[in-house]
Amino acid sequence: MDKKVCIDDKCIGCGLCVKDCPSLAIKIENNRAIVIKENCIMCGHCVAICPTEAVSIEGYDMSEVEEIDGNISLSSEELLHKLKGLRSIRHFKDQAVDDDIVKNIIEAGRYSSTAKNSQAVRYIVLKDQITSYENMVLPIFQKLQKFLAVFGNNYIKDFDFSQGFLFKDAPVVILVVAEHHLDAGLAAKAMELMADSYGLGSLYVGFFTYVANFSRKIKRKLSIGRKEKIVACLAVGYPDIKYKRTVPRNKAKISWM
Ligand SMILES: Cc1cc2nc3c(=O)[nH]c(=O)nc-3n(C[C@H](O)[C@H](O)[C@H](O)COP(=O)(O)O)c2cc1C
Questions:
Q1: Are the beta carbons of 235 and 168 closer than 8 angstroms?
Q2: Closest ligand 1 atom, CA of 87?
């Protein structure tokens, strides 16, 4: 359904929506905000900022809009500590993840920023077919391993490309699909954090995305379009491992100009 910004009688003409609209789509006329451009990016800032709830957007489910709870806050120290402590999880418990939790993880992706608010990111959840996809990819790595060994490339020489190598027997794998990488990447990071909030661990499985994006057969089986890419593949499950501390990292390379 096409979307349309609507401003009702509750408008007090304060102009906050005009000031915050990135599309320059609203102006004040006779002490009321009016829409002057129908084809804005539908980012919803006008809805979010209006002090009198006068703005809605037809075509969105407005019942999903929540009042911001200003009392929820995480200190900078807590947030940074949380981010530093997030690890790639490669050992999962044999425990299912509830579908409602998976849906909420995807919600975190859905609310992430996208360029021009395109919201052109979609998600494919693998549960029953994880092994089947793993079996399509592993033989390719087994062949590649032999091939690269001939040229003395040793990076993957010792990997055991047998069942479980890719997804580490995680109960759920979420593919984040988009044309624009950053859109999907931002969604994936939010999803990783959301998964963590449920006590779940995640692993980005680049070995899978790399091959899957090259394989017409896999893309066809996943119903992924020609322009679309699997940008992130997140294996998700309850961690069977506990880390006691953060990891060391290179210092940030920062240029102040
Ligand atoms: C895009 C991306 C792809 C990755 N692919 C894999 C993978 O296929 N298999 C794997 O075991 N780890 C994979 N990783 C995990 C990285 O090895 C890991 O992030 C890195 O070693 C740092 O560890 P940390 O995530 O615990 O901080 C991937 C990470 C990223 C960001």
A1: yes
A2: 26
For residues 176 and 121, the answer to whether their CB atoms sit within 8 Å is yes
pLDDT in tens, 225-257: 989 999 999 999 999 999 999 999 999 999 999
- Protein fold of 4-64: Alpha-Beta Plaits (3.30.70)
Q: How far is the CA of 33 from the centre of ligand 1 (A)?
A: 49
DSSP bridge pairs for 5: 57
How high is the mean pLDDT of the chain?
96
Q: What is the C-alpha separation between 18 and 202, in angstroms, rounded?
A: 41
Does pLDDT of 152 surpass 80? no
Mean predicted confidence (pLDDT) in 95-123: 98
Report residue 208 CA to chain centroid gap: 17
CB 32 within 8 A of CB 11: yes
User: Mapped to the 3 state alphabet, what secondary structure does 6-62 carry?
Assistant: EECCCCCCCCHHHHHCCCCCEEEECCEEEECCCCCCCCCHHHHHCCCCCEEEECECH
Alpha helices in the chain (DSSP H): 16-20, 45-49, 76-85, 99-110, 130-150, 181-197, 206-214, 216-221
Residue whose CA lies nearest to ligand 1 atom number 31: 204
234, 203 in Cβ contact below 8 A? Answer: yes
Q: Whose CA is nearest to atom 30 of ligand 1?
A: 204
The superfamily (CATH) of domain 85-237 is NADH Oxidase (3.40.109.10)
Q: How far is CA 186 from CA 108, 205, 252, in A?
A: 10, 16, 20
Q: Where in the chain are the domains? A: 4-64, 85-237
Q: Which of 204, 230, 250 to probe ligand 1 with, by most ligand atoms within 8 A of CB?
A: 204
